[in-house]
Specification:
Rossmann fold, 2 domains, six-stranded parallel sheet, three-stranded antiparallel sheet, elongated, isomerase, CoA-Trfase_III_dom3_sf, CoA-Trfase_fam_III, CoA-Trfase_III_dom_1_sf, alpha-methylacyl-CoA racemase activity
Amino acid sequence: MANPLLSGIRVLDLTRLLPGPFCSLYLAQMGAEVVKLEEPQGGDYARMLSPELFTLVNRGKKSVTLDLRQPEAVAVLKVMVSQADVLIESLRPGVMDKLGCGYQELKIINPRLVYAALTGYGQTGPYKDRAGHDMNYCAYAGLLDQSGAAGGPPALSNFQSADLAGGALTCALGILAAVIGARASGQGTMVDVGMLDGTLALQALSLATVRTLGASAARGGDILSGGLANYSIYACADGKHVAMAALEPKFFLNFCKTVERPDLAAMPLAPGPDGAALRSALEALFKTRSRDEWELLLADRDCCVSGIYTPQEALDNPQVKARGLVRMEDGKPLPELPIKFSDAAGAAGDCPALGADTSSVLAGLGFGAAALAALRASGAI
């Protein structure tokens, strides 16, 4: 890796499954040393539930087994904290305190520590102790209500908006801001991220609609594009679909010129019944060609129409390939860091086996052979 931007930053990652590991993956891809702390028996649940998912989000990390229910393991964690920059955990509020390694205790050991707690509902409020998953946070944040076809029921997406965007990326942003602050002041902080919080913050257009209209819009009816025929999805002759996002009139005019249909440009660009004639005309038009034929015709005409791809098809998109967003390993896709730096490279190495780095990491912290043997005998590692 050329000039990794986070070189020298050591991260202790106590999280599992998806949101926390995805957060620390970004840090690892930017050069941080990420030490994944896992329970000795089984480790991260994702190892068993979905080995491929585990591989995707835990590349480039080290794995150390540590059973924090053992006081000896808590003592080891405190030694690790003394030489770390960041600790990330996703346990329910108060659990780390009960284990004897909450933020108030750890910051005494290392005042510059950035302690990130990534939970469903944050550290405060009446929901803080509730269990939850991505769909619950999307439901409470109003996102699920806005997902799906206009006039239909809410639809569950295969994209984990709350886990990844509301949680993982929000947490990574908070960590980076806190690390910068700690380097400047010598004082760390606790980063409290709730996935509900981050997901609600993503609702910029929905909240702008509330501010404008005084109430939420019906699904597909936001203040910018709701119900417009020139901002919609259309079926093609082959049963596949295209996304027309010709929101600005100039883009829609470019489309009309390309398809030689000036009559479409004369129809009202309006939501609801006023735009019904245009929508019907576009539905009929798009069914005259296949998705790929529309792509070929419209690709360079500056009209904001694109084919809707499956995730597998997206891997072969020429733009995705040109940007080096995915590399293939043993015939399987591995996404690269989606951020480009002018003078730095981002990458992540192999996925660690459970406990593969326990001995080497602890030896680097001063634990000798006898101490390691005693820790193994106690079940702490």
